[in-house]
Design a protein that fits this description.
The protein is an alpha+beta fold. Helix content is about 60%, strand content about 15%.
Amino acid sequence: MELLEVIKSLSNETRLNILKWLKDPYAHFPEEELSEKTPELGVCVSDIAKKAGMSVPTVSEYLKTMSAANVLIATRNGQWTYYKRNEQLIQDLAMHIKDTL
């Protein structure tokens, strides 16, 4: 884990909100936007953009930044990209902060 990259990827209110939303997608996204594959795949970029009230290109850049830092896991399915949290990295980050900082 590159601590500085992870922290930089989260240094934006919308990115932090995305991380919160993806913790429990069923509580934050309309049921009709989710599928039975949401737990494995995650949430589609367009659904995240709609929730954020931002353009798809802007949210897509945010998601790519978070994915590059391994905070999120991207899965391509046809023409759509889905994102979910990297729970292991988030746990490692919490432990690192607790033990080191």
